[in-house]
Each structure stands twice: as structure tokens, then as C-alpha cells.
Amino acid sequence: MYCLMSGGSGAMISFVVCLVVLVVGYFTYGRFVDNVLGPDDRDTPAVTINDGVDYVVMPQWKLFLVELLNIAGLGPIFGAMQGALWGPIVFLWITFGTLFAGGVHDYISGMLSERNNGQSISEVTGTYLGLTMKNIMRVFSVVLLVMVGTVFAVGPAGLLVEMVDPQGTGAAGAFSATTTWLAIILAYYFVATFISIDKIIGRIYPAFGICLILMAIGVAIGMPLNGYATPEIWDHLYSMHPEATPVWSFMFITVACGAISGFHSTQAPLMARCMKSERQGRFVFYGAMVAEGVIALVWAAAGCSLYEVTGGLNMGLAEVLKSGQSAAIYDVCIRTMGSVGVILAMLGVVVCPITSGDTAFRSARLTLADWLKLDQERMVDRLKLCIPVLGVGAFLGFGNTLGFLSYTVIWRYFSWTNQTLAMIVLWAGAVYLLKERKNFWICVVPAIFMSAVSATYFCMAPECLGMIPALANNTAVAYPVGVIVALLFFGLFWRATHKREATVA
């Protein structure tokens, strides 16, 4: 039985309702969050510092599209397709996670960076959570960014080999080798990381951001036109995951981009250094996150709609994903858009990861520059950081390609690290709002939620403490631990609020 047979051709009420909630949420809750922070007419770092390299004024529409591409890439597609294994209940996480967690996280990280001279998120976090957390975040951020940059070089390199030499005959000569394409991509990364942000990123990336949006629009329109119906949430209020993987907290970790992702906080300072006015923040940061949520919602709907359901489980989607996430993207695009979809899919699976990879390495350079207090206006100072950062990325990338370093090892702890980073940033935002005597609950509530998610996952996931047989997928232990950790962090914050009230009094 196929999903399109379960609800009648074209039925997709849940999808449309969630889409409307996301759009309305931007104009309502997004405005509420913006009013809490209170953007004003102070001079921004792009104006006061303006070094012509990283601090450069760019127009608002470019800021939005570059921010979207930086935080998205293929994240909201890969994560959403994996999340669709749980069924249409994933729509709820994408919708409400985007509005109340991801949007707030991206907005607060971007605006706090802007109000702290465009500093990297590790430095901003340390300002509000102390030196120890600053050092932890420095290490977290650099490791995360180098991992992301490396993975987004290796993946496209392999896909380019498949495109130029699909039969594996070596007919394309040197271009039939993954190492050749990897070297080319890393060389591009070096240039994009080194030169001024408005030379390549500011000029070309808005076009790729538009392509990412067009791909989602094409899939959304193509589903009903080709007779695919999206299953409704109220008919599937249960997990459809073929391997019976628990919804809590695995779904909330799997669907990161498109709901909430700590990686976004490492990218927000790039645009915080290019804003002409604080009043652009809601559109650039919160707006880009909502746009990413819409993209994720579309791809989650595609994952739920196009593939066979067996015994109430998404077996068909699971089989497609076994061929690789890129293969799944091609399949969805071809089914919904035909030959046009092939072109968009080729752009998506090759270009989008590369555009996220180079900004990841650029963010790593800037994080290290802030850490080491090394000015980046001079070329020689940028080279001091570009060479070692890209050198590590090259070692990891070629190590995976040549077989002496596992891709799995590179990526093993990314998911947990990513969401834990988001949790820390939300707590930092809560402390900032507390100090400013503003409504800190907009950060506290999602911070508590993500604290429980991260602690639960860390306790039971096979790549974390779950490597211990007694803890692997052990909900009886992990669930109480998650609740206890979340309450502990909230208790520490609540204690800080009372200390501040006593001091003010």
C-alpha cells in the first residue's frame, strides 16, 4: 500500500496547516521575539569596524539568502528525509521546533554577536556563561566546523566522480578519482575562506539560495500534481520508524537543520558582521530559520508521501535511504519534477554542501582569530589560520578517501555535539535577557527542552554512552536522566535570577 492510497489523491491538510503556521509564526511570534530584544539604531560592527574582509555592509536581501544557504545547504533535506521515517509526526517537530526553538536560537545568536562587535559564538557565550564555558565552546565550535567542512568536501567529491564516470571505467582520466575532485574542492575552500566575504559568498551564493528555495517549491507542487497524497498527522499519531527507533530523543536529534541546529550559531556571526542595521535581524536570522523550516517540511512530506508503507511502517523510504541520501534526493526530484528535477538535484547535492563547507571553514578561521586575538585584516594573518585549518580538513578528507580514516569516525559525534551547542547558546541567551531585565522565558523554555534532548540522547545513543550494552536504547535510564539534567540546568539558572534580584535590591 502506498501513502497516496491512504488519503486520496492530493490530500495534504496536515502539511498545509503546518506550512501556514510557520508563515504566520514568523509575523507573530517572530515579531514578539524581536520586540523582546528591542533592536535600535546603534551603529553596527559592519559600520564601525568595516575591514573590507569580514566586516562588509551587504544589502538585506543578500544577507537573508546567504544566511539561508549557510545554515541550510542540504541539512534540512537530509535531516527531514531521515525524520520522515517516524511518519508525519515529524511535521510537528519541524513546525514548532522552528518557531519556538530554532528561530529564537538563530536570532539570539546573530543579534548577540552583532551587539558584541560580531564576535564568534564561542566568545559571545563566554561573555554570559563564564570563562570555562567559553573555552568549552571554543573547542566545540572549531571541531564541529572542521567536521562539517570536511564532510561537505568528501561527499560532493564522490558525487562528482559518479557524474563524470558513472560506470567506473576511468574514462574521465584524473577526474575519475575522488582525490582529484577533493583537491579541487579544498583549493576552492581555501580561496573562499581567505578572501573578502563579498567577493564570492556575497556575489554568487544568493543565486544558490534561490535554487534551494526553487527545489522545495518544485517538490511541493509536484507531489499533488503527480497524485501523491501526504498522510495526515491525526491518522498516524504513532512512530512509523521501521527499526522502532524511539521518537524521544532520536527524532529531535536527527532533524536538526529544519528545527534547531547549533551549527547555525557558528554561521550567524558571518552575517552579523555585514548588517547595516539591527532592524534587519528578524528577517535575516529568524526569517532564514523559518525558510529553512519550510524547506524541511516539504522534504519531510515528500519522504512520507512517495514511498511504500508496509504494516504501518515506512519501509519504502528506508530502502531508498539505504542507497544514500543523495540518491534519495535524486529520486524525489525526478518523481515530482521530471527532467527539471534532475538539474535542480544535481545543483543541490553538489553545490549546496560545498557552499556550507566553505563557510564552515571560514567560521573556524574567525573563531580561532577571536580566540587568539589575531586581527584578520592583513593577508599574512589570515594565512596563519587558513593554512592549518584547511590542512586539518585535508588530512581528514584524504584520510577518509584513501581509507586510513573512517568517515563514520569523523561524523560519529556530530549529531549530539550539534544539538548540545544549540542548548548552550540558548542558555547564554537566557542569561543575557536576564541581565537586561527582559523576557528570558523565550530562551529558557527551549533551553530546558534541548537540555533534556541532549542528555537523553547522550545516555542511550550507541555512539555515546549507549556503547555500554546496558545503556544502549535503555529508555528506563535515559529518560529520567534527561529530565534530571534539564531540571538541574533550570535550577542553576533560577538561582542566578534570585542572586541578581538580591543584588539589584
TrEMBL record:
Location of this chain's protein in the cell: Cell membrane
Gene Ontology cellular component list: plasma membrane
Protein name from the UniProt record: Carbon starvation protein CstA C-terminal domain protein
Every CstA N-terminal domain range: 11-225, 314-454
Membrane topology: Multi-pass membrane protein
Keywords assigned by UniProt, alphabetized: Cell membrane, Membrane, Transmembrane, Transmembrane helix
Principal subcellular localization: membrane
TM segment ranges: 12-29, 85-108, 139-159, 171-192, 204-225, 245-263, 283-308, 328-355, 385-407, 413-433, 440-458, 478-496
Family designation: Belongs to the peptide transporter carbon starvation (CstA) (TC 2.A.114) family.
Any matching Pfam family: CstA
Organism: Olsenella profusa F0195
Protein's GO biological process: cellular response to starvation
